[in-house]
Amino acid sequence: MTTDWKEEVSKCSKCGKCQTVCPVFLETGDESSVSRGKISLAEALRDKQIVYTERLREHVYSCKKCMRCRKVCPSDVDYEVIISALLRGVADEMGIPLMPKIIFRYMLPRRILFDLMLKVGSKIQRFIPGKRRGQMRHLPLLFMGKRWIPTLAKKTALKKFSTTRKLKNPKMRVGLFTGCLINYIYVDIAEAVVDVLNRMNIEVVIPQGQLCCGTPSSTMGDHKSSKKLAEVNREVFESHNLDAIVSACATCTKSIKMDYLRTLGPSWQQMSDKIYDISEFIEKYCGNDYKAKPIDEKVTYHDPCHLMWVRGITEEPRDVLKKSSDFVDMDMAGSCCGGGGIFTIIHYDLTLKMLERKVNSIERSGADTVATNCPGCIMQIADGFAGKDSKVKTTHSIQILQKAMVNGGVDNSDTS
Amino acid sequence: MKFFQKTKKEVNKHQKALSELIRVVGEERILSAIEDRICYSYDATRQKVLPDIVVRPADTNDVSNTLKIASKYKVPIYARGAGSGLTGGAVPLMGGIVFDLKNMNRIIEISPDDFTATVEPGVVTKELQDEVAKFDLFYPPDPSSAAFSTIGGNVAECAGGITGLKYGVTRDYILSLEIVLPDGSVINTGGKALRSTTGYDLTRLFTGSEGTLGVFTKITVKLIPKPEKILTVAAYFSERDDAVDAADLIIDNNILPRTLEFLDQMTINAVRGYTGADIGEDVKALLLIDIDGTEGSISHEVPIIENACRESNAFRTKVAETAEERDAIWATRRSISPALYNIAPHKINEDICVPRSKIKEMLQRVDRIKTDQPIYIANFGHIGDGNIHVNTMYSDDPGQEELAESIVNKVMKEVVKLGGSISGEHGIGNKKSQFMELEIPSHEYEIMKKFKSYFDPKGIMNPGKMFIR
Lengths: 416, 469
Ligand SMILES: Cc1cc2nc3c(=O)[nH]c(=O)nc-3n(C[C@H](O)[C@H](O)[C@H](O)COP(=O)(O)OP(=O)(O)OC[C@H]3O[C@@H](n4cnc5c(N)ncnc54)[C@H](O)[C@@H]3O)c2cc1C
Ligand code: SF4
Ligand code: SF4
Prior knowledge:
The complex is a heterodimer of chains A (416) and B (469). Chain A is an alpha/beta fold. Chain A has 3 domains: 90 residues, Orthogonal Bundle (Fumarate Reductase Iron-sulfur Protein, Chain B, domain 2), CATH 1.10.1060; 129 residues, Rossmann fold, CATH 3.40.50.1860; 111 residues, Rossmann fold (3-Layer(aba) Sandwich). Helices cover 52% and strands 9% of the residues of chain A. Chain A has a 4-stranded parallel beta sheet with strand order 4-3-5-6. Chain A has a 4-stranded parallel beta sheet with strand order 8-7-9-10, with helices on both faces. In chain A, helix 18 runs parallel beside helix 22 and helix 20 crosses helix 21. Chain A is globular, with a radius of gyration of 21 Å. With 469 residues, chain B is an alpha+beta fold. Chain B is globular and about 70 Å long. Chain B contains 16 helices and 18 strands. Among the domains of chain B are: 93 residues, Uridine Diphospho-n-acetylenolpyruvylglucosamine Reductase, domain 2; 119 residues, Uridine Diphospho-n-acetylenolpyruvylglucosamine Reductase, domain 3 (2-Layer Sandwich), CATH 3.30.465; 109 residues, Alpha-Beta Plaits. The two termini of chain B are 23 Å apart. In chain B, the strands form 4 sheets. Chain B has a 7-stranded antiparallel beta sheet with strand order 15-12-14-13-17-18-16, with helices on both faces. The chains are: A alpha/beta (416), B alpha+beta (469). Chains A and B meet through helix 3 and helix 4 of A and helix 2 and helix 12 of B. The structure holds flavin-adenine dinucleotide (FAD) and iron/sulfur cluster (2 copies). The site of flavin-adenine dinucleotide has 36 residues of chain B, from strand 3, helix 5 and strand 10.
């Protein structure tokens, strides 16, 4: 791995094409924002012409890791290898800021501790006034920043679904990888996944003991923590005999399906092949035989970076929405909402600009609701609308489908 | 990355210039940390030289103030657009100030009545094209880099592109320039009138000046009505010469296609190997032709083009009407660049241009130069204009780079012998300055240098480019 990136940077022909897609460059017009600039910094590090500094850290953290650049690169530069190496370098050479370190190293790998911490957080939260449309201003440790984020759930998804709802003759048995945001905040998304799949006669197991996918820590360059998390998750999921693993979080799906191949090695391939985004899974295995009565709502769809640009999945979520609502596409559906981890904290001003673009195109579409397949995007976009007092609702596409199935009274689950 | 070695005196002057720039232009417009300067050290030639300061002006005033200071302390200064240049134009060879114009990116006016648009230099070419299209207008110059290159860079390099045969190149669309000269004074050349014969044509002198004479801060371009329809024809040949003949015959039939692109066998093989494109092994040359106009003119021209191709022994022609079909054909063209890197990691891309009647001869001469030496040469490009991109691909093996360079050297000499130009559209920069005198007779060369020293007596504008000292 350590030698890899040094070769990878040499592949960049410096053509500049990555400028056309980079959402950060679009806002700053500054070469240090785009992969070509970061690759040049990596080259200078490789050649020992610079060392890790605060300024370098800022540049490294200004990447959204959306991988648009990788997708369009004519020289096939694997930018992910390069940015990961830079992030790891920053962490190794400069250390990780103390608070995240405590969370990543000690809390995330220990579910009970983390639960406890957030519980305390949710208590404090109730004393803070200013509740607006279900979003409230607060500072949980993981998502620091001046943002509106939703209240923490009283009962996590993992607790809520600790026992599997058994089906008698299920078509398949799948495991749900919840991910932190859905586990702690958007429990209703997990509920929708279970409900919809059950209605399709698919049994859903939520393996207890699963942990954070590892993205927040690897984004900070803390690969040790990420590896630990990946190993625990492997153990947990391999111990259940599952036909497939689904996730409703674009980032988690990318992480466990793709990043784990690097962290855990090729032995993960067999599991990786069984991992799906929720809409991808539904269209692949139930696409032809599920029925729903479209709800009477104009719904548009936002493409999360990690689904569209990393995995090329754009049709399946739309297919689901077309069958379950009055679907309209928006222009620039693939533009980044600006959400996402450390970037939002360090480059808050840029985050806001991207968010504004997104909110504007959603409004132009005339939709009542914007659906997407990533709780991170949901949080970000809802944040954008909460600040605006707009009527547009933000939700997950699986929740639209759930409504449509309830609407149509569809239930093929076999529990008799 | 290279560091230009400065004398103590020069370092001193740079320091003074920096503090004055901070005072006059403002700290927020200046980057001086090495982690920032590295990101402005290169262009698409992959050369890297570290600048001492990066200035990111917001308006003409900033540009003028910066140039005054650069002039005062004799600090070299390099205008920079998107840094997509292929001849080293934006590389700060001798250290000094990189002038990043990307932030001056407003479209000031689109005037459908006058058929003109006025923009700042940092506007991306495609953005201009898209914006004027909203008024059913058309800005034809279309370099393959249009999605990221800037108008300022296009004017400075006189960029061409695939629509050149019918519509000409950047030069043909520049009506007026606001230019800041190295001493900080601002001049305006030309005007919005579509014709003017008043005095010398300074607009043309500055177009293609590669940042060696002054910095453009406002550019007024000419627009034309947007063609109603575009249609694509692909023609497949089993002999290279047949494809060249077909291109001739199409033009002889009084048709100027919007685009007339040629791919030779090496190029086709590379694309097939890379994309798995469905192009048979028997295809030795390919023409990709776009025609535009009205429904009526196109349906008149398509059969003529197909006939011309068949008369020249094309064994197949394919007409694409819908956007998807057209896109599938053009995907082949777009994939050339990555496909070539798939055969060898390095390339020297020379955009030679010869008179149309000499294309066949030129390609033969390239063959003769290469003979059976262990290197790849792929030829493709704007055959309608005689502008062929000769790509010499080489590996990291010892001797390969030298071999590639010697081949390029010989190719350049043959180009000039055939009455051609060593650079059809990429400019000279520092990459091709060694070949300038092959094409430009010494008297003319001296005249050009006199122009240069008239406008830039202190030699601060983009030193090391165009002329060998
Ligand atoms: C993949 C790829 C495809 C390409 N295809 C084509 C093609 O089809 N046709 C073609 O002609 N070229 C092509 N090019 C070359 C390049 O894109 C053009 O030369 C383009 O015009 C450069 O624009 P830029 O904004 O990147 O300028 P830069 O590279 O930043 O600068 C180029 C030159 O312009 C000067 N300059 C920039 N802005 C100003 C200004 N405001 N005032 C004065 N001087 C200025 C600089 O000093 C420098 O000398 C291609 C390049 C790439 C990487
Ligand atoms: S698109 Fe790829 S090759 Fe081109 S500059 Fe960006 S990373 Fe480098
Ligand atoms: S990953 Fe996304 S944000 Fe980062 S450089 Fe590439 S395009 Fe820009």
